[in-house]
Specification:
The structure is a single chain. The protein is mainly α. Helix content is 64%, strand content 0%. The longest helix is centred in the middle third of the chain and has 15 residues. The chain is globular, with a radius of gyration of 15 Å. The termini are far apart.
Length: 109
């Protein structure tokens, strides 16, 4: 599977709440098993691009290994344009609307 096709895989972002899982299961059920396996291989490669750790620590300086895993998946879920922009220049992460919302929800001390 080419990386271009990988970005077009079914996602769960279009359906809110509890219906998201059902929608995702239905759409993934229509994808050939070989494509699902290829997508996982592609995702594993994307997640270990060199700047991924830089982007993570720029956002979460005290982050854990588990947090890094979740961050990688979350960043990929934001789409190709955002993912590639952040990986090319981790400083661009601060411009991502989802990151700005994180800053708004952090508890104050």
């Amino acid at each position: 599977m080419s990386s271009g096709r990988s970005w077009n895989r079914p996602g769960g972002n279009a359906v809110p709440g509890k219906d998201r899982l059902k929608s995702l299961e239905a759409r993934l059920g229509a994808v050939p098993v070989d494509d699902v396996i290829d997508f996982q291989k592609w995702l594993d490669i994307c997640e270990y691009r060199s700047n991924m750790l830089v982007a993570y620590h720029a956002t979460f300086p005290l982050g854990s290994d588990d947090g890094f895993l979740y961050f990688r998946r979350w960043l990929v879920s934001l789409g190709r344009e955002t993912f590639e922009r952040v990986i090319a220049d981790p400083d661009q992460l601060i411009e991502v609307p989802e990151v700005l919302r994180l800053g708004e929800t952090r508890p104050t001390t």
